[in-house]
Structures are given as C-alpha cells and as structure tokens.
Amino acid sequence: MSVRRLADVQPESFEFTPENKAWAATEIAKYPPGRQASAVLALLWRAQAQSGYWLPKPAIEKVAEMLDMPNIRVLEVATFYSMFNLAPVGRYYVQLCGTTPCMLGGAEDIKAVLWKRIGEPGHVTADGIFSWNEVECLGACCNAPMVQINDDYYEDLTPQNFADLLDDLAAGRPVRKGSQIGRASSEPVGGLTALTALYGVDGRSGPQSLSTQAPANDRRASLVQPDSAGAEARAAAEEAQINEALAKLPADATQEQKANAVGARPPALEAPRAVADNLQRIKGVGPVNEKHLHELGVFHFDQIAAWTRSEIRWVGAYLAFPGRIDREQWVPQAANLAHVGTGPKDSAVQGHQDVKKGH
Ligand code: FES
Fold first, then answer.
1. Distance 138 CA to ligand 1 centre (A)
2. Is 92 in a helix, a strand, or coil?
3. Is 207 helix (H, G, I), strand (E, B) or coil?
C-alpha cells in the first residue's frame, strides 16, 4: 500500500448529525470506562458515510475529540485502512481487487476498462459519478475477478459485463449485485461437480446435463444453474427493482420505452443464418414468445446465450415479464443448446415434447 495522504482541500469543520451523534453515544457506551477508543473504527466509518464516502480531516479530529484520543492516533487508523478514503470519491466508488486470484482471473482487463472509462486511480469523473482505486483481496476470490462499488460486491466480471454495469449505474438503471453470470454464492462455474445425482444433475436432465458442458475455456458462457431456489430469489430481487423503475414511467409508455428504461436492446439479426434454431426447445419459450423473439431479430441459441445482464432486463421488460428469463434460465439453457447443436424447425415436435416433460 502506498503512502496515503489527506486531501489538499478540506472543509472547515465537521459535526455529526443529531441522529449520528446519538448513534455514536450508543457505540461508545458498549465499551468499559477508559476504553472508548475501541469505538474508533465505528465512528470513523459513520463519519465517512455522512461525508459522502470520504473522511475529511475535521471529521478525524472530531472523532478524536469524542473518544478522548490524540489526533495523531486517529489519523494513524484512518490512513492505515484502505476502507477509509482520505479524498473525495465519485458517487460510485469502485474498488478493484488486484490480488493474485483476481489478477489471474482477469483483473487487468477490468482495470483497463476503469482506465478507459474513468481515468487514473483516485480521479473523479467530471460528472462526479465515478472514481476508482485498486485494493488488496476483498475476500471473494472464488468469484474472481471482482470489484466493490460502494457497499456492494460485483463478481465474475468480464470487460463486457463490467462496462455494461458501469453504463447501467451511470444511467440510474437497476443493476444486479453479486455474480454477474448468475451463479449462487461460490458454486462452480460449470455447475455442480459433486453430489450431482442428489441434485438431479446426472447427465440425464436435458439442459442441466453436465455432459453438455462446453470446453473449459467456454464454460462461463454455458453456465447452468441447478440452484433453482437461488435463481428464483435472484429473479425476484431484480424483478422488484425493474418494476420500481417501470412504475416511474408514464402510464402510456410503450413496451420499447419501458425496456429502454431498464436495459439495452440485444443485437439483432435481420434474418436467420441459414435456418433458425427451434427456440421452443428452451423451456419457457412457446410459440408466442418465439414469434416475439423473431420480431426482435433473435433466431439462434447463441444469440440468447450471449445476452448480457442489461440485455436480459431489456428483453424481459419488452416482453412484459421481468425476472422470468432468469427464473426459467433461458440463457444457460440456450448456451447448452448452442453447444450441443440442435435441429432447426424439424425438431419442433421433439421440442414440444421436451417442454411437456418438464425438461
Ligand atoms: S483475490 Fe480478489 S477477492 Fe480475493
């Protein structure tokens, strides 16, 4: 960690709000007489939150006064921990993990996006929206590469989904926290590799079949999600965010206007390449949705498999069922079907049978 210095420009004073002052009193009261200094991290953290996610010098001095500590002792704490920002940051402050697992997972590519989009570390964009810094391990190595933005983690990043994420934040659109490829917690990228029989991922489960996995270097694209409960929870959370955004639109907004408010339209083809895939082989896509997808220029499994979070939201809102694409796992299904290969229209009958059988 390089030397950390206080910002050149400082406010003249700092006072906790009455609410934070009362909160600080309860924090300090948790410790025995003479041990008030134990509350230093908590008070600095609250002071930072009140000051727009950075710690002005007067705030550090105020905490020292409240805890009866020399200023230098509190300053030592504030300059030691990278969780305390000593200069103003953007509304969205990005902390990029650059430690070994994230570096091996592609953190350098994510850093290149930050340099291009925001500029050098510590620089706040002219609109005040973004700033970034590189930090040490944030403890989410299993889902590397990752960043922390304000208080939330964003994991399994690629240059594309990270650029989309920044676009969505800048535009005020809802974003997905945690894994950007939809895996729950730290489950393997390619789906379960143990206890597969227990969870029904045993090579006989259609789209969830491990036998349909892509080669290792393509496994992110072919992510399967055996964790249907997790998929349901994630879909519900995002659906709520989208519905909140849609509720702010005029009542006569078109489907396209609604979709544009929450995401980005996916790339379209003017016509199928040779023959269209039978999209009805995706569980959840019936004749009506297949027709709509064709109208949107979507004819092939690999198109759906490549949808970003932003594009999933756009299509979900356009088709008036936000959350359903995640809930029914269209993207991992499409990824598997794209890798396995499938017949075109002549497999429609088989596709219907698959859906009816619940595969
Ligand atoms: S190495 Fe990046 S979170 Fe641990």
1. 5
2. strand
3. helix
In terms of DSSP H, where are the helices of 296-342? 301-305, 309-318, 324-327, 330-340
Ligand 1 touching residue 144 (CB < 6 A): yes
Provide the percentage of residues in the chain whose pLDDT is more than 90.
52
Does 181 or 224 have the greater pLDDT score? 181
Do the beta carbons of residue 207 and residue 281 sit within 8 Å?
no
- Ligand 1 and 331: CB distance under 6 A: no
Ligand 1 within 6 A of CB of 102: yes
Distance 349 CA to ligand 1 centre (A): 47
Q: So what's the pLDDT on residue 357?
A: 33
> Domain check: are 100 and 70 in the same one?
no
Same domain, 311 and 233: yes
Task: Identify the weakest region by mean pLDDT among 39-43, 180-184, 204-208, 235-239.
Answer: 204-208
For 41-73, letters b (16+ CB in 10 Å) and e give: ebbbbbbbebbebbbbbbbbebbbebbebeeee
Query: Which secondary-structure segment (H or E) carries 155?
Result: strand 152-155
Closest atom of ligand 1 relative to the 143 alpha carbon: 3
Is residue 167 situated within a structural domain? yes
Q: Are residues 274 and 163 located together in one domain of the fold?
A: no
**214 in any annotated domain:** no
**Ligand 1 centre distance from Cα of residue 142 (Å):** 8
**In which domain, by residue range, is 315 found?**
228-356
Q: What is the number of other CB atoms lying within 10 angstroms of the CB of residue 288? A: 9
Are the C-beta atoms of 313 and 246 separated by less than 8 Å? no
Do 62 and 104 belong to one domain? no
DSSP 136: S
Q: At 51, which CATH number?
A: 1.10.10
**C-beta of 101 in contact with ligand 1 (< 6 A):** yes
Number of domains in the chain: 3
Angle at 182 between CA 180 and CA 188, to 5 degrees: 105
Which residue in 196, 188, 192 sits closest to 143, CA to CA? 188
